[in-house]
Design a protein that fits this description.
With about 100 residues, the protein is mostly helical. It has 2 domains: about 40 residues; about 50 residues, 434 Repressor (Amino-terminal Domain), CATH 1.10.260. The chain contains 5 helices and no strands.
Amino acid sequence: MSVLDGPGEGTWSTFAMHVAKERDALAQELAELRASLVAKEPAKMLTLDEIRRRLQDRRLDAVALATGLHANSIARIRDATNLDPKYSTLAALSAYLEANQ
């Protein structure tokens, strides 16, 4: 065994093949998880005005932690300085606000 060999698998090409298989399996799992999340999106999403109204009494750091969004992004939506937020951002906020009324 030389320094160029992979970690107990023989050659680096064999090691690279294992890494590629693992990467492909994880990519497939991620695609399935994303598809399941899309299927679970709320049937009725809150309007932008309703999201803004419900965010008025919320701690932005708690909302950011729960949604995975940045607190500054949430503040810009709440304060109406972002007039055209992304759909995914609104969907995350709507789902959070519906679950945590």
